[in-house]
Design goal:
about 70 residues; mainly alpha; 1 helix; about 80% helix; rod-shaped
Length: about 70
């Protein structure tokens, strides 16, 4: 193998590794966004569960979610 072909092969490998790193970086960024969204969803669900427990512990019936308030 000549020195020129060895250099060309190394350059190809570097280019492939750069593409792989860019692809992994993009995937990681998307996963971070997904995790943040899921964490917010879990926080909202936990708050809803807490609200339901609070209402249940006071013995009051909660109005259905789709029922309009009495002032409508």
């Amino acid at each position: 193998m000549s020195q020129e072909s060895a250099i060309a092969e190394l350059q190809e490998q570097i280019a492939f590794q750069e593409l792989t790193i860019d692809s992994l970086n993009e995937s990681l960024g998307q996963q971070q966004l997904d995790i943040a969204r899921l964490q917010r969803t879990v926080e909202l669900l936990a708050q809803q569960v807490k609200n339901i427990r609070d209402v249940a512990s006071t013995g009051q019936a909660a109005p259905p979610a789709n029922e309009k308030p009495p002032h409508y």
